[in-house]
Amino acid sequence: MNITVKKVRNRRDLRKFVHFPNELYKDNPYYVPQIESMDRDTLTPSKNHAFEVCEGQYWLAFDEKDCVVGRVAAIINRRYNEKVGEKICRFGWIDFIDDNGVSEALMHAVEGYAKEKGMDIVSGPTGFLEFDAAGVLVEGFDQLPTAYGKYNAPYYEKHLLALGYMKEIDFVEFRIIVPDVIPERYARMAKMVAEKYNLHQAPLSERNDIDPYLDGVFKCLNAAYSNLHGFSELTPGQCEDLKKQFLTNINVDYISIVLDSDNTVVGFGVALPSLSKAMQKAKGSLFPFGFVHLLKALKHNDTIDLLLIAINEQYQSKGVNAMIFDKFAQGITKNGIKYIESTRELEDNTEVQNLWHPFDHYIHKRARVYIKNISN
């Protein structure tokens, strides 16, 4: 097969870039299409504040019939590179047919770009920020991803290994089965921790009640995530983007903001009703009926996706997780939730994983980030 790789240069190219995986996996029952207009915004510098600290280039691969057969993005997060003292080019948004020539041509483009920019390492798949989908799925091909995960066919890993990439880190996802009665230990522990450290929950009865705490939430997030793989401190603009992305769909039953005696945010957790099946029905578009499916899923669901838990370093390993989950438990009981899906978390994140020990739970998806040294 003759492969031609072309840079994405205009909106028409970007539409092809975003649409390709929705076409590649259109008949796959486990694929969750991303909303194409939102993906385009993420990849557009004027609409994504991540470009304050990032730069990038995207490519499409075409066959001899001028059909799209692959895509990839190269991203340099300057702030993260400065933080870790390394010259890393990330790759992401990678999808391709099962053809070695296609994957080789795409990654050759990424590596060429990385060398032009003076980078020594190529790592991915990751995105601009920690909150973009990361990793190649290596386990769980018969499981439905969360709306914030990503599906790919089993052959991706084989292609990357053949190109000299090695495992850098794994992310895992748990499925937790909610019992008919949530163990009282969570409530007891939450009360004990609150009394011992003089902590309390922010009073949240409606969406607008969250607003006074948002600056504290993002300050806590930046501090708690500072040492995580791939994370760089969020700028004010990036915080605004995340507010738009998550708060539109927020349900106060699934948000916990833990405050100290001075009403300073020391920890928080956010979950959302699962949107995976609704996004399958939407087929990549909010209109004309996609948004209807999403609204229904937000109101009527038996599954929630755990998005974020962040705790100030001063309070880590002191049981604040129990306070956060106790708040979730109240919403879970109120709304008849049967399952909890953890979104991708680092495989060694035992503090969060210990929350699930009293429940039936199991790892049912694993995603892998790869790395290659190109300095030689």
How would you summarize what this structure contains?
The protein is of the alpha+beta class and 376 residues long.
Would you give an account of this structure?
With 376 residues, the chain is an alpha+beta fold. The chain is 34% helix and 26% strand. It has 2 domains: 4-173 and 369-373, Gcn5-related N-acetyltransferase (GNAT) (Aminopeptidase, 3-Layer(aba) Sandwich); 177-365, 3-Layer(aba) Sandwich (Aminopeptidase), CATH 3.40.630.30. Strands 1, 2, 3, 4, 5, 6, 7, 8, 9, 10, 11, 12, 13 and 14 form a 14-stranded mixed beta sheet that branches. It is globular.
- Bin the strand percentage: 25-35%
> What composes the largest sheet?
14 strands, mixed
- Please give the number of β-strands: 14
Alpha carbon gap, first and last residue: 30 Å
Helix content: 25-40%
CATH class of the largest domain: Alpha Beta
CATH architecture of the largest domain: 3-Layer(aba) Sandwich
Number of helices: 12
Give the helix/strand class. Answer: alpha+beta
Question: Using only CA atoms, what is the Rg?
Answer: 21 Å
Mean pLDDT: 89
What do we call the CATH topology of the largest domain? Aminopeptidase
Number of domains: 2
The ordered string of helix (H) and strand (E) elements is: EHHEEHEHEEHEHEHHEEHHEHEEHE
The CATH superfamily of the largest domain is: Gcn5-related N-acetyltransferase (GNAT)
Could you say which overall geometry the principal axes of the C-alpha atoms support?
globular
Unreliable parts: none
